[in-house]
Records
---
Amino acid sequence: MSTPSAIRIAAVLSAEHRGRLMAHAREVNFPEGARLFDEGGPAQTFWIVRSGTVTLEIPLPGRRTPAPVESLGPGELVGWSWLFPPYVWQLSAEAMTPVRAYEFDGATVRMLMDADPAFGSAIGHWVGRVLAVRLHQTRTRLLDLYSPRSGSGR
């Protein structure tokens, strides 16, 4: 369930664009078990993992606990819903280990993107690539859970 390295920040953004983004980072820590966000909540921030593991989850009908979709580690983006109206989380996220991360204010980054089209395009393409991978991972996980072959579906 890990993300291909081709969408990690260092592999996608130029040093100039990484530096511009990182100038707006705030270092944060999450203890093991902390909820970063829950599906349906307001998406106002996003993170880049420095160390530790964050698991993305999707709530499923008939299940008491959400299903894990993907595990994210160092250099990976946690959260994309901050970029797209109505700015509401589409998944949930939990720290599976102690996590150190860089936190960003979504509104600030959107303003930076609007002010500099090259920067905006780079960030938009990066988040789009991440979104495509997350959609594929979620689809694959749901097929695993609900496929008649899996025996764990309905």
Note: The longest strand covers residues 45-51.
---
Amino acid sequence: MSARSKARKRALDMLYVAEVRELPITDVLATETVRHLDQPERASSWDYARQIVTGVDDARHEIDSVIIDHAQGWSIARMPVLDR
């Protein structure tokens, strides 16, 4: 698996954890930063994963708006976390 693929998976994992555990993204990023520093073999995917997560967090309202506009028969609250 390429570093970018690993980064995308890692970003999805972080976003999922934040959503399911109802944690602020900053807390999840802080935890992952510590893990990144303790596991240098994961360094190749860290920067891109962090950029993805930060970008999603920064654009959350716009992303949710697009999802709401295009969802048919589903409210965003009813959608499974991974589908969002």
Note: The two ends are 24 Å apart (CA to CA).
---
Amino acid sequence: MGSAALSLLLATATITVAARQRRAEAARLEAARLEERRLQLEELAIRRKALAHQQRMHWELLARAIDDPSLAAVIDTYDKSIPVEKRRQFFYANAWYVHLFHLYRAGILDREELYRYLREFFQSPLFREYWEASQGQRATLNESSDEAVIGRMVDGLVMDLDEADTDEWWVVGNPPSD
């Protein structure tokens, strides 16, 4: 009887220790998962902050170019036969396009929302002229970059708008779903 009781006591102790070890391991895994998630969120916040800073810098530099034609000459890659005033308007259109693009990259807009905003912007003949005039700039992008992918989406949108047989532009095209 003593030996059986001792065996039972030993088995119970072993089970208890094993259960404690499983709980401790589960707690360690949960802590590691939470730490990994915290680091992911921190990285996302840093990335969004960097994108916001980049957008501010882009706007400041572009605003200077819009205000001062001598500075605009530094970044002006548009056809020189385009009047200076129209090229300044193209810089402004670019500022709006980049603004929307950064909202997309920051996760504030999804691709469908970006598409809907751009569909509205492309009702402006000047915005369309800007897009056509900047075709060479987009051609230099890495084909797999976000900018190039969105540029191709916009090219499709412009084609759909051009081919539409309706004045109801807000229903033209098929917004992408993410």
Note: Helices lie at 2-67, 69-75, 84-105, 111-121, 125-133, 135-139, 146-163.
---
Amino acid sequence: MGLTMTHEGTDFAVSTAPADVVRRQYLASAAGDLAALRATLAPDVEWTEMAGFPLTGTYRTPEGVTSHVMERLGADWEDWTAHDDTYVVDGENVVVLARYTAVNAATGKPIDVRVAHHFVVRGGPIARFEQFVDTALVRDAMTG
């Protein structure tokens, strides 16, 4: 039994199944492990934050994504977390329904907003990401 559990854990840690790669990205993000998060991203990743979101734009390279997205979210928000709950997988496409929770560091206002993420996992790592979120609710928390 122990061997089976270890084997499954090892499989998940190195699995190239699209949903497993995406799940590792969420776990790394929640743990604040940016090196592990970068390991899930392709060298030429395109990571798009929705128009209207504070970090709107497309970021490239794993280092670009973590420095321009995760590190900035960590600076501007307390306990920023993406809670992934539903996965819809179609080949290399993984859509995750989730929610963001956080408290804005400047205003002290909390958010709890629904979000959809579309990942393209190609040949192992995440090649593309696109975020869909109610940007008005996020902005409301940022204004005094």
Note: The longest helix spans residues 62-76.
